[in-house]
Amino acid sequence: MAQDHSFDIVSKPNLQELDNAVQMAVKELANRFDFKGSVSSIEKQGDDKIVLVSEDEFKLKNVVNILQEKLARRQLSLKFFEFGKIETALGGTVKQIVKIKTGIEQEQAKEITKLIKASGLKVQAQIQGDSVRVIAKKIDDLQAVMQKVNAANLQIALQFDNYR
């Protein structure tokens, strides 16, 4: 058995749940009475963005609410999503691009490592690309770090991976 224990702090949404939430939102748009005959749509483009289109800003806000409700129901944190500004599109419609954020940016990773080091626990935190690895001799220290990071309520959604 290894004497050092570790885990990774990552930020990545469950893409299958994201697909399911988008499909459920599209079905609700098709079935809702107030959207009958409208040009409203939700379309996922790749793994990094969702495009929302509607006739006017009021209906677009309703489309956003539907999508957010379905994401919340699927336990996807809204911190994964960056809602862009509303733009005019072709044919008198409006659109909004929702960026799907994956990975931890360098500045946020530095903030997380600073938080971990300030906790005073005997752990090491290393930035590895878009994740942060935490290593300790005791499992209890790792669990304390998890609690500290969760309690910090950062601007990004975090998960703990590769717990060994």
Q: What integer value in Å does the Rg equal?
A: 20 Å
Number of helices: 4
What is the succession of H and E elements?
Answer: EHEEHEEEHEEHE
Q: Could you name the CATH topology of the largest domain?
A: Alpha-Beta Plaits
Mean residue pLDDT:
87
Just name the CATH architecture of the largest domain.
Answer: 2-Layer Sandwich
Q: Which spans have pLDDT < 50 for at least 5 consecutive residues? A: none
How would you describe this protein?
The structure is a single chain. The chain is α+β, with helices and mostly antiparallel strands. It has 2 domains: 67 residues, Alpha-Beta Plaits; 86 residues, 2-Layer Sandwich (Alpha-Beta Plaits). It contains 4 helices and 9 strands, in the order E-H-E-E-H-E-E-E-H-E-E-H-E. Strands 2, 3, 4, 5 and 6 form a 5-stranded antiparallel sheet that branches. Helix 1 packs across helix 2.
Any chance you could write out the topology, listing elements then pairs?
Layout: E1 5-10, H1 15-31, E2 41-45, E3 49-54, H2 57-73, E4 81-83, E5 87-88, E6 94-100, H3 106-118, E7 123-128, E8 131-136, H4 139-152, E9 159-161
Antiparallel strand pairs: 1-8, 1-9, 2-3, 3-6, 4-6, 5-6, 7-8
List keywords for this structure.
Alpha-Beta Plaits, alpha+beta, 4-stranded antiparallel β-sheet, 5-stranded antiparallel β-sheet, single chain
In short:
The chain has 164 residues and is α+β, with helices and mostly antiparallel strands. The chain has helices spanning 15-31, 57-73, 106-118, 139-152, and strands at residues 5-10, 41-45, 49-54, 81-83, 87-88, 94-100, 123-128, 131-136, 159-161. Strand 2 and strand 3 (49-54) form a beta hairpin.
